[in-house]
């Protein structure tokens, strides 16, 4: 790996635990740092298509964050990460290959399905699940990136930079809301929650 072990440990502490999802984010960040670079400000932009654990690694390691406006979340439910370098237009899309998260034998998927369906896991099953998660994480951290991901260039231009916009008071709750996020309903300017409440009552 090109990311120093101390930095990996810092990433795990930032996220709160080690797991396969975080490992995917660490390895995707490794590819982004290698091919596109790190975002000291807004020069690098990341578009993530999931809200899974790996996004914490993307933020911590690449410098792309929600607060700077150079991390965009698209709620597509895909382990896919696109990185843009604004100065020269270079961009890559990193997509986790099918089956990677279920390796090596499907234990994690089957036991999590059982738990989600309301089934209690025995002590032996819990230990088996823990071992499988640790094995999965180790595999992801040790594999070459090209084994984990499809990595392809992107020809579309980067999304526009985040803009600072005026805030206006919501006529429903009185709280300030960015004007681009307001909705109009029956002559009132509303925040999204107030708009949705009024729309449901209508």
Care to describe what's here?
With 202 residues, the protein is of the alpha+beta class. It folds into 2 domains: 5-153, 60s Ribosomal Protein L30, Chain: A, CATH 3.30.1330.130; 167-201, Wheat Germ Agglutinin (Isolectin 2), domain 1. 40% of the residues lie in helices and 18% in strands. It has 7 helices and 9 strands, in the order ααβαβββαααβββββα. It has helices at 5-15, 20-35, 54-62, 107-116, 123-142, 145-148, 192-201; strands at 44-48, 71-73, 80-85, 91-96, 149-153, 167-169, 176-178, 183-185, 188-190. It has a 5-stranded mixed sheet with strand order 2-1-3-4-5. Strands 6-7 form a two-stranded antiparallel ribbon. Helix 3 (54-62) links the parallel strand 1 (44-48) and strand 2 (71-73). Helix 1 (5-15) packs across helix 3 (54-62), helix 2 packs parallel to helix 3 (54-62) and helix 4 (107-116) crosses helix 5. It is globular and about 60 Å long. It starts with a helix and ends with a helix. The mean pLDDT is 92.
Summarize the structure.
This protein has seven helices and nine strands.
Strand order of the largest sheet: 2-1-3-4-5
Assign the CATH architecture of the largest domain: 2-Layer Sandwich
Give the percentage of residues in beta strands.
15-25%
Look at the structure and give the CATH class of the largest domain. Answer: Alpha Beta
